[in-house]
Amino acid sequence: MVRAGLSPERLTLAGAELADEGGFDQVTLSALARRFDVKPASLYAHVRNSHDLRTRIALFALEELADRVADAVAGRAGKDALTAFANAYRDYARAHPGRYEAARYRLDAQTAAASAGVRHAQMTRAILRGYELAEPDQTHAVRMLGSVFHGYASLEAAGGFDHTDVAAQESWAWTLDCLDTALRSRSAP
């Protein structure tokens, strides 16, 4: 029997909220069942297992982040687009740490290919068109930007910038300036 009010979508959102509250690694079917005051077995009518739940949360987070980034970069180009993309990414990681962590969950190739992760790559490449990068530089730049944004967000979340007099925002702006300069220096003639 399906419990009234429960659905895969509602469980996914509740799982995302749990992730933000305590970390993605704390999202379990047992924790989710406690949140709804039901037995864990009753959740199996809506999700197959913990991996299915985690995958759903990852897909939800990827979609949510892609929507925010798309809104931020709409109508922008060059450094303005790069900065808007980066700020949307960082802001999401700060506002939704568990969801951000979920967006890094390893997906199988078929699921990944059908996810909003593809939109992230497309948006990154769209921003890079403003820098006129040829291949393989464009692929290198996609990887560099993802690494820098993820690294910065991860270090910041872990408190890595809390022990200096220089504000994290000041370093973030400096980093984005350096990225823009590096990308412009690699532009096709």
Describe this structure in words.
There is one protein chain. The mean pLDDT is 94. The protein is mostly helical. The N and C termini lie far apart (65 Å). The chain has nine helices and no strands. Helix 4 (78-95) runs antiparallel to helix 7 (117-129).
Spell out the blueprint of helices and strands.
Elements: H1 8-22, H2 29-36, H3 50-73, H4 78-95, H5 97-102, H6 109-113, H7 117-129, H8 137-157, H9 168-185
In short:
It is built from nine helices and no strands. The chain has 189 residues and is mostly helical.
Strand segment tally = 0
Separation, N- and C-terminal Cα atoms: 65 Å
Q: Main β-sheet, in a few words?
A: none
Give the ordered list of helices and strands.
Answer: HHHHHHHHH
User: Structural class, please?
Assistant: mainly alpha
Number of helices: 9
Chain-averaged pLDDT: 94
Strand fraction band?
under 5%
Determine Rg (CA atoms, Å): 19 Å
**Fraction of residues in helix:** 55-70%
Shape: globular
